[in-house]
Amino acid sequence: MEDQHRTEPRVTYCYRHPDRETGISCVRCERPICPECMVPASVGFQCPECVKSGSGTGHSPSASAPRTIAGGVIAGDRRLITKILLGVNAAVFVAVLVVGSRLVDDLLLFGQAVTEPYGPVEGVAQGQWYRLLTSMFLHQEIWHIAMNMLGLWFLGPPLEAALGRLRYSALYFLSGLGGSALTFLVSAPGQASLGASGAIFGLFGATAVLMRRMNYDMRPILILLGINLVFTFTWQGISWQAHIGGLAVGALIAYAMVHAPRKHRRLVQYGSCALMALLIVAACVVRTLQLTP
């Protein structure tokens, strides 16, 4: 009689991320690794530690350097850029508390505004394009910076680890500038806007794209994104333009970064970032021509 006893398949977890199930092992050390830790090899995948130590193959250091899913170099501190962004936002917030409204007026995103009765007109339309960037780091209320920085700390490190520092930085800044540009393009000229929300929504979009690419369960991020979108369109005083602009830019750039064919990876990634930057500039030029004689 045939033995009816059946052995259940053993569940393995990534040795670097013990909470993640995986069915892939490093071809050199045979330890289980998750998609984030997979470094493509000539046959199969290697873990980052084996790639770092396996320099005896005669390859150049750049060829053997561990790479992220987007082709970036795996860094020792995968939260460095996120920490820097948190620090800059916190520093500007403290500066606003010390200096007061004068600093806020200098950094706010204005399309075009009269600073005082019959006084000079200033804003992005008058050439102060720096406001598109400075407004991304400007907060006045403690709840505002707390919510944005919580989102940055929650979404930033996984994306920084998956994309690499340079690509992650490009994603963050272009998402924020995309939100600022859409706000400038469609809002009333005198409507002020500030905060890192555009960049944070860019991280939301990028996270959804990355999770889809790695076949992760997308329900948590989609639910969280849906809740934030509800607040965007129902809470008075929120700039939906910044949120939607950042979300769209972040998702599009992330898609180009993680789906670019390996043979033309840098061309596709750098090209998509350059194209997005050109679109942002074009939107600002069009709005400036509308608002100035």
TrEMBL record:
The keyword Cytoplasm does not apply. The keyword Transferase does not apply. The chain crosses the membrane at residues 84-104, 142-163, 170-188, 194-211, 218-235, 241-258, 270-289. It holds the Pfam family Rhomboid. It is a multi-pass membrane protein. Gene3D superfamilies: Rhomboid-like. Keywords: Hydrolase, Membrane, Transmembrane, Transmembrane helix. It is found in: Membrane. GO terms for molecular function: serine-type endopeptidase activity. InterPro entries: Peptidase_S54_rhomboid_dom, Rhomboid-like_sf, Rhomboid_protease_S54. Belongs to the peptidase S54 family. This is Rhomboid family protein.
